Amino acid sequence: MATDAEFAPPQPWPALTFEERPWEIEDGHVSRTQRRKHAGPYEAAVVPRIATLDPPLPASLLAESEEAAREAARFDEHVGATFGTSAAGLSEIGPMSAILLRTESASSSQIENLTAGARQIALAELGEHANVNARLVRGNVHAMEAALRLSESIDQGSILAMHLALLGDSQPQRAGRWRDQQVWIGGSDAGPHRADFVPPHHEHVESAIADLVDFANRDDLPAVAQVAITHAQFETIHPFSDGNGRTGRALVHAMFAHRGLSKRITVPVSSGLLVNTGSYFEALGAYRRGDVAPIVERFNAATIFAVGAGRRLVDELKHVRVSFNDRVKARSDASAWNVADLLIAQPVINSAYIQSSLGISDVAALRAIETLEKGGVLVQPASAKRNRVWQSPEILSVLDDFAERIRRVRG
């Protein structure tokens, strides 16, 4: 016989509460006006514990989450079917998986207003001179790689490892460490009193993350809804001094892999969030007020958008790669074919990269480059003569067009 509890409506999701904390301005360079505005105690958020809670979502939204999860899994299968093994025997799924991951990293970084073109990002991955934003995107690529590598075990250690991969080069003193001070979003550097949002005091971070990890490891919730709520809770805890958004979106992909939605590739979910960052940030605000539906709606839509955009990107890259076969004149076992496959993931290359990737000599690497140059696959930009760098204009164009399409949708 069913009990009354089985028919009880779901409990509302708890909103943030706040606690008063003392504040003293230590910086002697702050003006009297700023001292007056930031004198006395402030209020910091207290996040509810969610590990055992069931999100109060309507059946239609849960069904939409299930459909988004199926679309993500179908995309993973589509890439596997589209990119199998090349004529030269090199697995093509590896390069395609790498470029999807880099595309996701670039979109995630752009949400933080860190924009870089495909060529600059490829140069940064190559270790060549690149602009600051491209180097920061490279850090995000490393965080995503760590997220996928550690997806079998989502815990405090894996989250710290993602953050270390993200900021290890640019901010080594902060990377891979929970914050040890109060932070706030918006307002003034002088203090948190007039901030847009004040996350929990740092003494609560580790216990809040432990609760978050318990929620993230449940297997009784629709996957995309669970990912969305985990992400919103993570951003609310704001456990790091910097890099919370990018680490939080790397965690999304660790969970996608953990739940089996993406076994071989990265679904570029951030491209779907990027098309409407306003509603994404509004949904995070609604979550903090106790309404989980908007963030779940946003992730459902972002996942479905990302699958459509990702399919088009995969198909366009496949078309470019196939076109190389008609233009390159080489034996079937020539290294040039393996280099052509590598260009999908790394459309800017040098001899050292090819030697390292394929385990061949400098002479063999340069011979492969020359073969691809003759076929019009690679060109050497005039600005790169000294550094001996070559690039695939067609693949770079596909990647930049992908970014431009997202910008047009945003407009």
The total of beta strands comes to: 4
Query: How many structural domains are formed by the residues?
Result: 2
Distance between the termini: 55 Å
Q: Output the radius of gyration.
A: 24 Å
Provide the CATH top-level class of the largest domain. Answer: Mainly Alpha
Number of helical elements? 16
- How confident is the prediction overall: mean pLDDT? 89
The class by helix and strand makeup works out as: mainly alpha
| Portion in beta strands | under 5%
GO molecular function, one term: ATP binding
Protein name: Fic family protein
InterPro entries: Fido (IPR003812), Fido-like_dom_sf (IPR036597), Fido_containing (IPR040198)
Keywords: ATP-binding, Nucleotide-binding
Explain what this protein looks like in three dimensions:
The protein is mainly α and 411 residues long. The protein has 2 domains: 59-309, Orthogonal Bundle (Fic-like fold); 312-410, Winged helix-like DNA-binding domain superfamily/Winged helix DNA-binding domain (Arc Repressor Mutant, subunit A). 57% of the residues lie in helices and 3% in strands. It has 16 helices and 4 strands. The protein has helices at 32-37, 59-82, 93-111, 118-126, 132-149, 156-167, 205-216, 223-237, 244-258, 269-274, 277-288, 293-327, 335-345, 351-358, 362-374, 393-410, and strands at 17-21, 42-46, 348-349, 390-391. The strands form 2 sheets. It has a two-stranded antiparallel ribbon. The protein has a two-stranded antiparallel sheet with strand order 3-4. The longest helix has 35 residues, at 293-327. The chain is globular and about 75 Å long. The N and C termini lie far apart (55 Å).
